[in-house]
Amino acid sequence: MLALLTVGMMPWAFNIKTAKGAWTGTVYIRADGSIDPQDAPIITFDNVTYTLNDTIAVPVNNYGVVVQRDNIVIDGMGYTLQGSQSGGGFSLSSRNNVTIKNADIENVQVGISLDFCSSISIMGNNITNNDYGIQAQGSSNNNIIGNNITNNGDGILLSNFSNGNNISGNNITNNGHGVSLIGSSVNSIYGNNVTLNNEYGIRLEYSSENSVSENNITANSYYGILIDGLSSNNTISENKIADNAYGISLDSSSDNSISGNNITNNGRGISLSYSPRNNITENNIANNEYGAVLVGYSPDYTNRIYHNNFINNTNQAQVTVGYENVWDDGYPSGGNYWSNYTGLDLFSGPYQNVTGGDGIGDTPYIIDENNTDRYPLMYPYGTETFKLTITTTTGGTTNPDPGTYIHPAGAIVNVTAFPNIGYSFSYWLLDGNTRTENPMSVIIDANHTLEAYFIDNIPPEISEPWQDPLPDNVQPFQNVTVWVNVTDYGTEIKNVTLWYSLNNGTTWTQLNMTELSAGTYQAIIQGYENCTWVTYKIIAYDNAENNATKDNNGYGYQYHVIPEYPFTPILILLILTTLTATTLWETKRKRQPP
What we know:
By secondary structure, the protein is mostly beta strands. It is built from 2 helices and 63 strands. It folds into 3 domains: 69-342, 3 Solenoid (Pectate Lyase C-like), CATH 2.160.20; 385-455; 461-560, Immunoglobulins (Immunoglobulin-like). Strands 1-6-9-12-15-18-21-24-27-30-33-36-39-41 form a 14-stranded parallel sheet, with no helix packed on it. The longest helix has 23 residues, at 569-591. It is rod-shaped, with a radius of gyration of 50 Å.
């Protein structure tokens, strides 16, 4: 019975009216909660939630709904407030805590008008073909969320100290102007689609401390974002700004922060005109006709521009002569990435004179005579990078040279070991693991250490020895001096020894040879009696314990102490007398007759 009673009461409870055509007139939601006139196509059961149940044709030069009550919700239920390019849709003056949602508002001068209101929420409405989609003046702490705002002269206009508004998640397209803030501060414009507007997507004029972030601002005919009229301390961050004549333009505005934006395919990526002390950081500025254009004729017009990626812009940066800016954040923070920078990264340090790369180019990037990026980045800012530290043992070097280098994640770096003369390459230690290939390919997926090991496995070189006296003229008990040249290109000579034998190599006596000059060594073999045969050889060691032997191809170097027949005067006279007597005898014998 209760169910039947409820069903029977429904037509009266919901005040359902079947419309034969659009209801024409102005609806007032009075301060006491009543609806005036009573036949207006709006119903309420609790004087809190008000629901449209038909289209409202807006009278000429008037509003469709005038709200005079606070703390209410108006649900359009998809119905339309429709005018003839005059009057307005919803009018709120000095109201607080009112929500307007799910309404279609079209063909009026002002879709929704807020005058000196606070805590107003405008959500999920279709606001199209009006002179002004949403207009607020002197209003604060309002939310404009998830509306479709298209084909209006101005999509959203906040003016006259409209502060603390949240404009987010709206589709703001094909308007003359997308979002305009004039003399309004501390507002947030977040996560909106602002496209195809005729003049600009978002404009801040005489407005400060606003945040414009994570919006898609594309294909607006003139400006993506325009900040002018002495606007200051605004934050423009994480927006996608593409295919506009000007991506972001500042005119006579100071102390603004422009960071983390993706600015591509615009005529000018970022343009500053007579705008000082702005910070432009961490933006991707790519494929624009001009990456950055800065105009001004005073030293006061100085901006800080660093950690941006200037990639493939037709003109990376253009600055008016005399207009000095700061293009880096010092060392080691660095400057900007310039895709047309051709410098190398072989050194590090504030003066780029320490061996080993640091991700910063060794030479500055010159913009003009007054503007220089002293520390250009080798890789786009934000690229994940790792360190590759290359070292060597004694005996060789590498290409790249030993040092610490910065590489982007995923890079493959080839390192080649080159042994010095007298050494050979042995192996690598990559993070403590032995590798033997050369060149060595290192995948940059973490910080790595790579050490090249070289060994001296080449023995010394020993020349042919020479001696004094010569081998065929050694007298009994005469000392013999032997010299030899020995060279080693590795760990250098440790010692050189002369080994000699008096019994054809059965036993040997060792003599340490003394270095007389660079590479020349000497030893003295004592004298022996006549008819002694002396055999000797040379053995040299380097500091790596490699050794070489010089031994006349295994036969040894030899000399023979000649017999002891000294040519004394008596012996010479005896020989001459004997020769003379023999000669005379032979002569006499030949003269005798047969």
